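[Automated response] Your request has been received and processed.

Submitted sequence:
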Amino acid sequence: MKFTADAKAFAAAMAAVQKITERRSTIPILQNAVITARQDSIELRATDLYLEITMAIAANVASPGATTVPAGLLSDILRKMAPGAEVAFEAGADGQVASVGAGRSKFRLQTLPDSDYPAMSNSNYSHTIEFTGDALHEALSKVQFAISTEETRYYLNGVHWNHDSEHPGAITFVATDGHRLAKSYRAPDGEVDGFPPIIVPRKTVGEIITLAKSAGAEALRIEVSDNKIRVTSGTTVLVSKLIDGTFPEYRRVIPALTNMIATVDTKALSASADRVTTISSERGRAVKLTFDGAKLHMAVNNPDHGSAEEDIDIGYSGARLEIGFNAKYLADIMTVIGVGEARISLTDAGSPTVITTDKDPASLYVLMPMRV
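Generated structure:
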């Protein structure tokens, strides 16, 4: 097999593909990516047995064929090629060595046969919808931070997609780690009735976000089966296994909005929480918030080092209320909301708090209180 391709395009595609591979995999071939040359393009494919990505780029193919090369190593080589260079790639008939070169640079890489490379099995995709890249990127970016990293509760290690009757015509995206919950919904093109509830793994969510950001206003095709999801954008295809589990009934932990609502500048709240928690212990970042009229008083007490306090201006007309939160979780929500104003709906010191923003009424965040 022999071809030439633009270094910049080849490097960008290889960088995306190599993220899927495992550099320290106990199965050597999973550290590789498949390169298939045919007609006027090359196809790159990689998998970790749970997620698979396939990308195609234009190339001048002198001799078709296929092989597998170390994905991380080839990505590093291509990244260091001179801008505007033309990369020549050739794999010998023996299937053991491939040469990669541009200008005066030339590398020889060990290869493994493509026939030994695993492939994701085909599925019967029962439901298809489409989102613009912008809409899907926005929705998933709003909830990704709340995905749990606790492996024992594996069913929380992803984003739950479902057709929520509360939002007809939309898909609702939910993530929670038991301490905080993020929910956002968006309307796709296509029929949502009958859309099955699925849990998309954390790694796959990250790759979909990257793909959606690149797509922009272009449409992404989403296909779902009993155990897989397939996302197609142009010549890029992601196929992933779904998490086999039951997502908790998240609606039960979302309290109704109350008339005890505080409005606060997100940047001011994040900065203030960051300052006062400088003195907190490494084990906990609890901060006590006192809502009282036009002032929010923030305080941290560390018996080993001292205490810190700070006031910021807010809008609040409810009764005086003291409540504790994990400062990092609070700051994460403010970061996702972005610059502007957040609305904090309070009930009492022991109940979940709901945080929303008028600039994105389709998203909602729930934060569990802490004892302080």
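Summary generated for your ticket: The mean pLDDT is 93. DSSP finds six helices and 26 strands in the chain.
If you did not submit this request, please reply to this message.
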